[in-house]
Automatic annotation (TrEMBL):
Alphabetically ordered keywords of this record: RNA-binding, Stress response
Region feature Disordered, mapped onto this chain: 1-21
Protein name: Ribosome-associated heat shock protein Hsp15
A Pfam short name: S4
Domain RNA-binding S4, residue spans: 22-84
Compositionally biased intervals (Basic and acidic residues): 1-10
GO MF annotation: an example: RNA binding
Source organism superkingdom: Bacteria
Length: 102
């Protein structure tokens, strides 16, 4: 078995420092647009989500501030601009700072 070079190993940021990108399913759960992370993953796989106009069905796809997300949930089509990366699933007032509805 070969080891990855040290520069290829993913490093998590020190506590308290925001990351520059985040998994799509985790962000949707932190936002909290979708109730559970597993449901967020299923919506990505079954419905597909557009990130900056490009369809993805991968919940692990990375998103960053400035990205535009478009997806259907129930009878509503959501169009959101990612403003910040979430660090937790917090109260509604905190969650509203993560995105802007378009």
């Amino acid at each position: 078995m070969t080891k990855k070079p040290a520069d290829k190993i993913a490093k998590s940021p020190p506590d308290g420092e925001p990351t520059s990108s985040q998994r799509l399913d985790v962000w949707l759960w932190h936002a909290p647009i979708i109730k559970t992370r597993s449901l967020a993953g299923r919506i990505c796989v079954q419905n597909g989500v557009r990130i900056n106009g490009h369809r993805t069905e991968k919940p692990a796809r990375r998103i960053a501030p400035g990205d535009i997300l478009t997806f259907a949930l129930g009878h509503k089509v959501w169009a959101l601009e990612v403003l910040k990366i979430g660090t937790r699933r917090g109260p509604a007032a905190e969650a509203r700072t993560l995105y802007r509805e378009l």
